[in-house]
Each structure stands twice: as C-alpha cells, then as structure tokens.
Write a structure and sequence with these properties.
Layout (H helix, E strand, L loop, with lengths): L12 E5 L4 H12 L4 E5 L7 H6 L7 E4 L2 E4 L1 H11 L10 H26 L5 H21 L11 H11 L1 H7 L11 H10 L3 H6 L3 H12 L10
Helix pairs in contact: 1-3, 1-6, 4-5, 4-6, 7-10
The structure holds glutathione.
C-alpha cells in the first residue's frame, strides 16, 4: 500500500529522513543544536512514494520542508538552517576558516564512501580503504594543528556536526568488518574528538547506540535492509 503524505502543518519544519541515514542525521543535528522545533517523516527508501520524488528528484534523504520551501542534500539543508536561524550559529564568519572546514568535510566523504561499500558489498575494497585511511590521516593532522575539543576550538561547529554521523558508526562498522577500525594509536586526536562529541547535547538526542547500528548494518549486508530496526 502506498505511504500517504502525512498532512503538513503550516509554519512547521519537516525533515524527510530515514531512521539510520547518516546524511539525514546531519540536518537533524543542526536543528537540535539550534533548538528548532521540527517534525520528522521517515521514508522507506525501498518504497518511495511519488510525493517523495516530487520533492527530491534525486530520491535521497534528507529533505527539509517548510511550507512551500523544499531543500535537499544534507550540506545544503544544514547550511540553510544555520543561515536562516541565526541562534547558536555553527558556521564561522571567517571565509578562509569556512573553506578549511569544508575541505575537512570533503576529505571525510571518503570515509563515508568506504562505509557504504563495505556495508553493501561482499569484499573490502582496497582502494576505498586506502582513501579512507588517507583522509583520516589528514584530518588527524588538521586536529593536531587546530587543537581540540572540537574542530573550531572550544565550541562545536558545523564541521563537527557534519562529520559526526559517520564517526558514530565506527564501532558498529568495526564489529562487522575489522578493516573499518580507526586505531587510537594512529588517530589519537580524532579518537579524543569522538569522545568529546559524545558530550554534545544534539549528538545525545540524535544518536543510535552501537548495537542498533550493528543490527541495522547486518540487515543491509544481508541484502534486505530493515529500516524499522528497534521499533
Ligand atoms: N549526497 C546526499 C546523500 C544522501 C543519501 O545518500 N541518503 C541515502 C540514505 S542514507 C538515500 O536517501 N539514498 C537513496 C536510496 O537509498 O535510494 C546528501 O548529502 O544528502
């Protein structure tokens, strides 16, 4: 049976999400960090309704919606929310700093690619593993240069929230595929950063625990993703 569009409420932000999607988590993190009221409509990516495609022709979550405004792509949604709602600003005002932070997010996307390949594939792709570790080496260097607890210094920034969802899945990935491990002796600063991120209120609100991630990833690996794990 087709999933009917839940009636939208005028003036209320809605995020179309999938419960275990790291990209949708980015936008939810930003909304929580800024204490912005919103509702979440979870989608089963295997049965996307036509009204979903009408909102995002790429067919991916997250989608941000507020009345007639519709935005998709996690980085774009997150930037939009930070600009449109200036409280608890996450993006640095210095353009050079902003550019450096985006480089880190871009580097980290190789880790996301590696995770995707090992979750959906049968073998560990050597090239993606090498790229992922290489990106983490550069990120470790950036953290060593900038200091901690967060990338921007003492307060959590957009760059931290954009990286977090994949970092949240490290332990689960490692339990399933040993090559996914992020050794603390090779990445001491990054390991510390992961710990620090665990103290951020928005992270505590949005995160799944490792056993739930393991259960979900196992269903993905089996070829039958269960988006309702834990319900
Ligand atoms: N570049 C996109 C990636 C989003 C993405 O890959 N989302 C996944 C769920 S985690 C999705 O909706 N995939 C579509 C599908 O599974 O058909 C973004 O940053 O928003």
């Amino acid at each position: 049976m087709a999933f009917c569009l839940p009636a939208p409420h005028s003036g209320k932000i809605r995020v179309y999400s999938m419960r275990f999607c790291p990209y949708a988590e980015r936008t939810r993190l930003v909304l929580h960090h800024k204490n912005i009221e919103h509702e979440v409509v979870n989608i089963d990516p295997l049965q996307k309704p036509s009204w979903f495609w009408d909102r995002n022709p790429n067919g991916s979550v997250p989608i941000f919606e507020l009345d007639d405004k519709v935005i998709y792509e996690s980085l774009i949604c997150s930037d939009y929310v930070d600009e449109a709602y200036p409280n608890n600003k996450l993006t640095p005002s210095d353009p050079y700093r902003r550019a450096q932070d985006r480089i880190i997010v871009e580097l980290f996307s190789k880790v996301g690619t590696f995770f995707f390949k090992i979750a959906y594939g049968k073998e560990v792709p050597k090239e993606a593993l090498r790229d992922s570790m290489g990106s983490l080496d550069l990120i470790e260097k950036a953290l060593a240069k900038e200091g901690t607890p967060f990338f921007g210094g003492s307060a959590v920034q957009m760059v931290d929230l954009m990286l977090w969802p994949h970092a949240e899945r490290f332990d689960a990935m490692t339990q399933l595929v040993k090559e996914a491990s992020v050794p603390a002796d090779r990445y001491p600063k990054f390991t510390k950063w992961i710990k620090n991120m665990g103290t951020v209120p928005a992270v505590q609100k949005c995160r799944w625990d490792t056993p739930s991630h393991v259960l979900f990833i196992e269903t993905v690996k089996s070829g039958k993703p269960d988006y309702d794990v834990g319900l």
